[in-house]
chitinase (Gossypium gossypioides), 264 residues
Amino acid sequence: GQNGNEGTLSDTCATGRYKYVNIGFLNTFGNGATPGLNLAGHCNPASNGCTSLSGEIKSCQNQGIKVMLSLGGGAGSYSLASQEDAKSVADYLWNNFLGGTSSSRPLGDAVLDGIDFDIEAGSGQYWDDLARSLSAYSSQGRKVYLTAAPQCPFPDAHLGTAINTGLFDYVWIQFYNNPLAQCQYASGNTKDILNSWNQWTSINAGSIFLGLPASPEAAGNGYIPPDVLTSQILPTIKSSAKYGGVMLWSKSFDNGYSAAIINS
Protein backbone atom coordinates (compact mmCIF):
# COMPACT_ATOMS: atom_id res chain seq x y z
CA GLY A 1 0.00 0.00 0.00
CA GLN A 2 2.99 2.35 0.00
CA ASN A 3 3.21 3.00 -3.74
CA GLY A 4 0.25 4.28 -5.71
CA ASN A 5 1.74 2.89 -8.92
CA GLU A 6 1.87 -0.75 -7.76
CA GLY A 7 -1.57 -1.65 -9.12
CA THR A 8 -4.77 -2.22 -7.21
CA LEU A 9 -5.52 -4.59 -4.39
CA SER A 10 -7.74 -6.54 -6.78
CA ASP A 11 -4.87 -6.83 -9.27
CA THR A 12 -2.59 -8.06 -6.51
CA CYS A 13 -4.95 -10.81 -5.44
CA ALA A 14 -5.79 -11.80 -9.01
CA THR A 15 -2.17 -12.82 -9.67
CA GLY A 16 -2.78 -15.99 -7.68
CA ARG A 17 0.64 -15.66 -6.07
CA TYR A 18 -0.35 -14.42 -2.61
CA LYS A 19 -2.28 -16.11 0.20
CA TYR A 20 -2.10 -13.12 2.54
CA VAL A 21 -2.07 -9.40 1.86
CA ASN A 22 -1.22 -6.73 4.41
CA ILE A 23 -2.63 -3.25 3.76
CA GLY A 24 -0.09 -0.75 5.08
CA PHE A 25 -0.22 1.31 7.12
CA LEU A 26 -2.24 2.62 10.01
CA ASN A 27 0.76 4.63 11.13
CA THR A 28 -0.74 7.13 13.56
CA PHE A 29 -2.48 5.80 16.66
CA GLY A 30 -2.23 5.45 20.42
CA ASN A 31 -1.28 7.80 23.23
CA GLY A 32 -4.24 10.05 22.54
CA ALA A 33 -3.54 10.53 18.83
CA THR A 34 -6.34 10.54 16.29
CA PRO A 35 -5.77 7.33 14.29
CA GLY A 36 -4.45 7.99 10.80
CA LEU A 37 -4.25 5.75 7.74
CA ASN A 38 -1.52 6.23 5.13
CA LEU A 39 -1.95 4.28 1.89
CA ALA A 40 0.38 6.57 -0.07
CA GLY A 41 -0.98 7.34 -3.54
CA HIS A 42 -3.77 4.76 -3.48
CA CYS A 43 -6.43 6.92 -1.86
CA ASN A 44 -6.97 9.84 0.49
CA PRO A 45 -8.56 8.76 3.77
CA ALA A 46 -9.10 12.39 4.79
CA SER A 47 -11.81 12.68 2.13
CA ASN A 48 -13.18 9.16 2.72
CA GLY A 49 -11.42 8.19 -0.49
CA CYS A 50 -10.34 4.76 0.79
CA THR A 51 -13.84 3.38 1.34
CA SER A 52 -13.76 2.33 -2.32
CA LEU A 53 -11.28 -0.39 -1.33
CA SER A 54 -14.09 -2.29 0.34
CA GLY A 55 -15.10 -4.12 -2.83
CA GLU A 56 -11.49 -5.00 -3.59
CA ILE A 57 -10.97 -6.41 -0.10
CA LYS A 58 -14.06 -8.58 -0.50
CA SER A 59 -12.85 -9.72 -3.92
CA CYS A 60 -9.59 -10.92 -2.38
CA GLN A 61 -11.41 -12.66 0.45
CA ASN A 62 -13.72 -14.40 -2.01
CA GLN A 63 -10.57 -15.93 -3.52
CA GLY A 64 -9.57 -17.31 -0.12
CA ILE A 65 -6.96 -14.61 0.51
CA LYS A 66 -6.74 -13.19 4.01
CA VAL A 67 -6.45 -9.40 4.14
CA MET A 68 -4.94 -7.71 7.19
CA LEU A 69 -4.44 -4.10 8.25
CA SER A 70 -0.81 -3.45 9.12
CA LEU A 71 -0.04 -1.24 12.10
CA GLY A 72 3.07 0.89 12.33
CA GLY A 73 5.74 0.66 9.67
CA GLY A 74 9.03 2.45 9.35
CA ALA A 75 7.56 5.96 9.52
CA GLY A 76 4.72 7.39 11.54
CA SER A 77 3.65 8.45 14.99
CA TYR A 78 2.48 5.52 17.04
CA SER A 79 2.90 4.21 20.56
CA LEU A 80 0.90 2.75 23.42
CA ALA A 81 0.90 4.55 26.75
CA SER A 82 -0.79 1.97 28.97
CA GLN A 83 -2.92 -1.16 29.11
CA GLU A 84 -5.97 1.08 28.87
CA ASP A 85 -4.54 2.74 25.77
CA ALA A 86 -3.98 -0.68 24.20
CA LYS A 87 -7.60 -1.62 24.91
CA SER A 88 -8.78 1.66 23.41
CA VAL A 89 -6.77 1.06 20.21
CA ALA A 90 -8.12 -2.50 20.02
CA ASP A 91 -11.68 -1.19 20.32
CA TYR A 92 -11.00 1.35 17.58
CA LEU A 93 -9.61 -1.34 15.27
CA TRP A 94 -12.53 -3.66 15.96
CA ASN A 95 -15.15 -1.00 15.28
CA ASN A 96 -13.49 0.56 12.24
CA PHE A 97 -11.79 -2.33 10.42
CA LEU A 98 -12.97 -5.63 11.89
CA GLY A 99 -16.35 -6.98 12.95
CA GLY A 100 -17.62 -3.99 14.88
CA THR A 101 -19.80 -1.17 13.69
CA SER A 102 -18.72 2.40 13.18
CA SER A 103 -20.28 5.07 11.00
CA SER A 104 -16.87 6.12 9.71
CA ARG A 105 -15.06 2.96 8.61
CA PRO A 106 -12.01 4.17 6.61
CA LEU A 107 -12.02 1.14 4.28
CA GLY A 108 -15.78 0.88 3.99
CA ASP A 109 -17.91 -2.02 5.18
CA ALA A 110 -15.47 -4.81 4.35
CA VAL A 111 -14.47 -6.80 7.43
CA LEU A 112 -10.73 -7.40 7.44
CA ASP A 113 -9.42 -10.77 8.56
CA GLY A 114 -7.03 -9.45 11.15
CA ILE A 115 -4.33 -7.07 12.28
CA ASP A 116 -0.62 -7.14 11.43
CA PHE A 117 1.90 -5.72 13.89
CA ASP A 118 4.80 -4.04 12.05
CA ILE A 119 6.13 -2.14 15.04
CA GLU A 120 9.49 -0.54 14.32
CA ALA A 121 9.49 2.46 16.66
CA GLY A 122 9.01 3.32 20.30
CA SER A 123 9.13 0.84 23.14
CA GLY A 124 8.07 -2.78 23.36
CA GLN A 125 5.50 -2.03 26.04
CA TYR A 126 1.80 -2.86 25.83
CA TRP A 127 1.84 -4.55 22.42
CA ASP A 128 1.10 -7.79 24.26
CA ASP A 129 -1.93 -6.09 25.79
CA LEU A 130 -3.08 -4.98 22.35
CA ALA A 131 -2.73 -8.55 21.10
CA ARG A 132 -4.78 -9.90 24.02
CA SER A 133 -7.51 -7.30 23.55
CA LEU A 134 -7.77 -8.00 19.82
CA SER A 135 -7.71 -11.75 20.34
CA ALA A 136 -10.59 -11.47 22.80
CA TYR A 137 -12.80 -10.25 19.96
CA SER A 138 -12.47 -13.67 18.31
CA SER A 139 -15.02 -14.88 20.85
CA GLN A 140 -17.68 -12.89 19.01
CA GLY A 141 -17.94 -15.45 16.24
CA ARG A 142 -15.39 -14.45 13.62
CA LYS A 143 -11.73 -15.14 14.29
CA VAL A 144 -9.45 -12.12 14.41
CA TYR A 145 -6.11 -13.19 12.93
CA LEU A 146 -3.01 -11.69 14.51
CA THR A 147 0.20 -11.44 12.51
CA ALA A 148 3.56 -9.81 13.17
CA ALA A 149 6.57 -8.64 11.18
CA PRO A 150 9.50 -8.56 13.62
CA GLN A 151 13.06 -7.72 12.62
CA CYS A 152 15.40 -10.71 12.44
CA PRO A 153 17.54 -10.00 15.56
CA PHE A 154 16.08 -12.42 18.12
CA PRO A 155 14.09 -11.66 20.17
CA ASP A 156 12.60 -8.60 18.52
CA ALA A 157 13.04 -5.45 20.61
CA HIS A 158 9.53 -4.18 19.96
CA LEU A 159 7.46 -7.32 19.50
CA GLY A 160 9.21 -10.01 21.53
CA THR A 161 6.85 -9.75 24.50
CA ALA A 162 3.76 -9.66 22.28
CA ILE A 163 4.87 -12.71 20.30
CA ASN A 164 5.48 -14.57 23.57
CA THR A 165 1.73 -14.42 24.28
CA GLY A 166 1.35 -17.26 21.79
CA LEU A 167 -1.59 -15.44 20.19
CA PHE A 168 -0.03 -14.82 16.78
CA ASP A 169 -1.18 -16.95 13.87
CA TYR A 170 1.48 -15.88 11.40
CA VAL A 171 4.87 -14.29 12.02
CA TRP A 172 6.75 -13.01 8.97
CA ILE A 173 10.27 -12.17 10.07
CA GLN A 174 12.08 -9.38 8.23
CA PHE A 175 15.40 -10.95 7.24
CA TYR A 176 16.69 -7.67 5.79
CA ASN A 177 17.91 -4.20 6.79
CA ASN A 178 19.82 -5.61 9.76
CA PRO A 179 23.30 -6.08 8.26
CA LEU A 180 25.22 -5.93 11.55
CA ALA A 181 23.06 -8.45 13.37
CA GLN A 182 24.28 -11.54 11.49
CA CYS A 183 20.73 -12.73 10.87
CA GLN A 184 20.29 -12.23 7.13
CA TYR A 185 21.73 -13.26 3.80
CA ALA A 186 24.87 -11.65 2.45
CA SER A 187 26.41 -12.59 -0.87
CA GLY A 188 27.55 -16.18 -0.66
CA ASN A 189 26.70 -16.51 3.04
CA THR A 190 23.59 -18.52 3.87
CA LYS A 191 24.80 -19.54 7.34
CA ASP A 192 23.60 -16.45 9.21
CA ILE A 193 20.06 -16.50 7.88
CA LEU A 194 19.69 -20.24 8.43
CA ASN A 195 20.96 -19.95 12.00
CA SER A 196 18.59 -17.06 12.62
CA TRP A 197 15.68 -19.01 11.13
CA ASN A 198 16.40 -21.85 13.54
CA GLN A 199 16.22 -19.41 16.45
CA TRP A 200 12.87 -18.11 15.28
CA THR A 201 11.38 -21.60 14.98
CA SER A 202 11.32 -21.71 18.78
CA ILE A 203 8.56 -19.10 19.07
CA ASN A 204 5.03 -20.02 20.07
CA ALA A 205 3.21 -19.08 16.86
CA GLY A 206 1.08 -20.82 14.27
CA SER A 207 3.35 -20.43 11.25
CA ILE A 208 6.52 -18.50 10.54
CA PHE A 209 7.50 -17.00 7.22
CA LEU A 210 10.77 -15.96 5.61
CA GLY A 211 10.38 -12.21 5.04
CA LEU A 212 12.49 -10.95 2.14
CA PRO A 213 12.92 -7.94 -0.16
CA ALA A 214 11.20 -8.59 -3.50
CA SER A 215 14.02 -6.81 -5.36
CA PRO A 216 17.46 -5.34 -4.60
CA GLU A 217 15.80 -1.90 -4.44
CA ALA A 218 13.22 -2.99 -1.85
CA ALA A 219 15.71 -2.88 1.03
CA GLY A 220 19.16 -1.60 1.86
CA ASN A 221 20.47 -5.14 2.14
CA GLY A 222 19.36 -8.74 2.57
CA TYR A 223 18.16 -9.39 -0.99
CA ILE A 224 18.47 -13.06 -2.00
CA PRO A 225 18.58 -13.94 -5.72
CA PRO A 226 15.68 -16.33 -6.49
CA ASP A 227 17.98 -19.14 -7.59
CA VAL A 228 19.93 -18.96 -4.32
CA LEU A 229 16.70 -18.95 -2.33
CA THR A 230 15.22 -21.94 -4.11
CA SER A 231 18.39 -24.04 -4.18
CA GLN A 232 20.22 -23.18 -0.94
CA ILE A 233 17.72 -21.86 1.60
CA LEU A 234 14.18 -23.10 1.04
CA PRO A 235 15.13 -26.81 0.92
CA THR A 236 16.49 -26.45 4.45
CA ILE A 237 13.86 -24.28 6.10
CA LYS A 238 10.86 -25.99 4.52
CA SER A 239 11.53 -28.96 6.78
CA SER A 240 10.58 -26.80 9.77
CA ALA A 241 7.21 -27.81 11.20
CA LYS A 242 6.20 -24.15 11.48
CA TYR A 243 7.28 -23.12 7.96
CA GLY A 244 4.48 -21.11 6.39
CA GLY A 245 6.03 -19.63 3.26
CA VAL A 246 7.79 -16.51 2.04
CA MET A 247 6.68 -12.95 2.77
CA LEU A 248 7.75 -10.23 0.33
CA TRP A 249 8.21 -6.49 0.79
CA SER A 250 6.43 -5.32 -1.18
CA LYS A 251 3.96 -5.53 -4.05
CA SER A 252 5.50 -2.51 -5.77
CA PHE A 253 8.92 -4.22 -5.86
CA ASP A 254 7.65 -7.66 -6.85
CA ASN A 255 8.48 -7.61 -10.53
CA GLY A 256 8.89 -11.32 -11.08
CA TYR A 257 10.28 -12.50 -7.74
CA SER A 258 7.14 -14.26 -6.53
CA ALA A 259 6.65 -15.84 -9.94
CA ALA A 260 10.22 -17.18 -9.82
CA ILE A 261 9.81 -18.86 -6.43
CA ILE A 262 6.12 -19.81 -6.26
CA ASN A 263 6.64 -23.43 -7.28
CA SER A 264 9.56 -24.04 -4.93
